[in-house]
User: Which sequence fits this backbone?
């Protein structure tokens, strides 16, 4: 498997510079207004990808904000030891960090801040929420925030503009909470689209677990915990290929969902992520390492030529994946949801993304409880697009079961 690249700019301190955006283009944008199991070894091994120069370029941490209790915890101490040159700044709460969260002045440095900054905190409220679409349950996640910078991502909205990874150091508490929840549920008696027999827990709602594994063992701890729970399965979506995860021996109890979109969209919108080709190429390695491998066809962005490019993507998927991956694969289809606040932030640093994301003629707004204006494709537009895409899947990747389209 190819290791993640250092990114288009190859700079010494960041994967992806803003100047690289100029190289990205979506056709039509702006023109219409619209093998066998891996040997068991931990990421702490010397050969771990996260200790490689490429990984250090992905996450060149220079500043570490930390709650005092998080810094004193075993996980916190491990993380501090991994980044001995970082400036450590104590904060009262990972939620309120002056100069980092909610500071519009950071917009110009948004992408860089994401890679150079880490936050350590404790997850105070441990709650599992019902879901029913992607998973049966949303677990309390091991992180919040992300060092990648997808232009449509909802994750930064909760913490202001630059939202680097916040690692929750009380991973033992999160796992103990999950153990109790799973024990209370007992066996899953009725199959559903989430899974035939296991209760599925999404463990990565507010971040990317593959990327988190560059920082610490939270993802590894969860994968290892789930392999002990025969009635449950972990699930997370990812846009980052981290070869360290191949060593975790999940024994079928973790579903990894590689997010896919046409390469032209990904180059414009999925900043700092692994190339889509790498995500596809990694699928067989992850299956052979003991993961269940699914796909997220998401977000589906409607712009001129989208049907053609999704056709190409599905044909490529059909060509690239071996039969053993196809036999167990399934997909979620998720149409783009956008947000006025994010639109306005993006105009300040990546306006070309907004040429495809912000399409008022196709979208309808819905005010959320906190007053934010979320934007989705209008009902008729969305229904037609879902119909088209499911038809393309049936024609070009008929082995790909669609678990749900939303
Ligand atoms: S990888 Fe996921 S969590 Fe990270 S910025 Fe992209 S969409 Fe958001």
Assistant:
């Amino acid at each position: 498997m190819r290791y993640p690249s250092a990114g288009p700019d190859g700079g010494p301190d960041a994967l992806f510079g803003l100047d690289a955006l100029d190289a990205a283009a979506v056709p039509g944008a702006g023109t219409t207004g619209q093998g066998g199991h891996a040997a068991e070894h931990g990421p702490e091994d010397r050969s771990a990808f996260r200790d490689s120069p490429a990984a250090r370029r992905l996450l060149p941490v220079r500043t570490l904000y930390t709650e005092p209790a998080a810094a004193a915890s075993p996980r916190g101490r491990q993380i501090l030891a991994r980044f001995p040159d970082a400036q450590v700044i104590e904060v009262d709460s990972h939620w309120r960090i002056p100069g980092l969260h909610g500071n519009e002045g950071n917009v110009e440095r948004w992408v860089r801040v994401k890679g150079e900054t880490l936050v350590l905190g404790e997850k105070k409220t441990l709650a599992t929420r019902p879901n029913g679409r992607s998973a049966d349950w949303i677990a309390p996640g091991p992180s919040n925030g992300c060092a990648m910078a997808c232009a449509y991502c909802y994750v930064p909205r909760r913490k202001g503009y630059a939202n680097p990874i916040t690692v929750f150091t009380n991973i033992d508490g999160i796992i103990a909470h999950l153990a109790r929840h799973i024990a209370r549920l007992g066996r899953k008696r009725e199959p559903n689209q989430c899974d035939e027999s296991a209760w599925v827990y999404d463990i990565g709602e507010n971040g990317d677990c593959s990327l988190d594994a560059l920082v610490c063992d939270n993802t590894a701890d969860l994968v290892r915990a789930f392999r002990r729970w025969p009635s449950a399965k972990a699930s997370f979506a990812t846009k980052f290929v981290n070869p360290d995860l191949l060593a975790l021996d999940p024994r079928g109890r973790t579903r990894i969902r590689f997010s896919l979109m046409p390469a032209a969209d990904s180059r414009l919108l999925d900043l700092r992520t692994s190339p889509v080709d790498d995500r596809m190429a990694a699928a067989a390695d992850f299956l052979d390492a003991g993961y269940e491998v699914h796909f997220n066809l998401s977000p589906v962005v409607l712009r001129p030529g989208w049907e053609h490019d999704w056709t190409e993507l599905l044909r490529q998927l059909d060509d690239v994946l071996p039969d053993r991956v196809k036999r167990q694969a399934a997909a979620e289809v998720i149409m783009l949801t956008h947000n006025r606040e994010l639109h306005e932030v993006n105009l300040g640093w990546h306006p070309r993304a907004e040429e495809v994301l912000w399409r008022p003629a196709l979208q309808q707004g819905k005010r959320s409880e906190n007053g934010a204006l979320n934007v989705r494709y209008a009902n008729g537009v969305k229904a037609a697009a879902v119909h088209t895409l499911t038809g393309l899947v049936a024609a070009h990747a008929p082995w790909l079961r669609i678990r749900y389209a939303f």
